[in-house]
Amino acid sequence: MTNGCLKCLKYTMCVANFLCFISGVAVLGFGVYMMVNFKLTAITPSLANFNLANMLLISGIIITCVSFLGFLGALKENRCLLLTFFLMLFFLLLVELTAACLLLMYEHEIAAWVENDLNKGLEKAKGEDPKEFLSEWDLVQEMFDCCGVHNASDWGDNVPKSCCLNEVRSTSQCQTYRLKGCLDTLKNWFEENFLSTGISVIVLCIIEVLGMCFAMTLFCHISRSGLGYKL
Fold first, then answer.
1. Calpha distance 206→7 (Å, rounded)
2. Which of 83, 105, 118, 188 is the most buried (most CB within 10 A)?
3. Chain segment 21-77, per-residue pLDDT in tens
4. Which alpha helices (H) appear in the chain, and where do they start and end?
5. Residue 64, CB-side half-sphere exposure with 13 Å CA sphere
């Protein structure tokens, strides 16, 4: 009975980690696609290394590596790989909880930092050679239906076409600009998705804790069975 339960646990770990590995590869591929086509480094210059493409790329690499360790460790019943899998999950859990606490504690400071960075990015887009910067701002402004950091006046006399809602065809002049600034729009978007993000983080933590429990159970069983570092 015990051996049957442990075999079930072993193959459950294999299947779960294999699915996570496939998901990690998909996230990694999407991150590469985003990095090639949508860099978005001009919107927030100081946070350029923390853009969506880089975050997806890093997340994909971590998921694939950790899930591969869990899959191989469970399949081969290797204590070393299972222990490494357990430690990596434990470290990731600590990082996620620490990041969540820091975001809650320094919410206002982070909001001010993002606002300052958006202003820097907009000033660069208004510079001497704004083509690259403007294309990224155009993408964000059309995607989130916003204009500038606070409103269209942030652009001064050179308001980009992506801010325009109604345009006179005969003169190509804009009649109405988008009313909301990108800062307020982004804040509202994060607030609207706060609950779903929190639930996702909680579910992820539960999955990681279950993975740690499964890995340690198999580790202890292998140790009692005297299988050692079976390959």
1. 22
2. 118
3. 999 899 888 888 877 776 555 566 655 556 667 788 888 899 999 999 999 988 888
4. 2-37, 52-76, 79-105, 107-125, 131-144, 182-192, 194-225
5. 13
pLDDT for residue 164: 83
Confidence of residue 120 (pLDDT cuts 50, 70, 90): confident
pLDDT at position 230: 45
Please say whether the beta carbons of 9 and 217 come within 8 A.
yes
Question: Token match 């500038």: residue?
Answer: 148
Please name the amino acid found at residue 87. L
How many alpha carbons fall within 13 Å on the CB side of residue 70? 34
Residue 43 vs residues 39, 47, 124, 182: alpha-carbon distances, Å = 10, 9, 9, 10
Cα 79 from chain centroid (whole Å)? 31
Tokens of 116: 């300052």
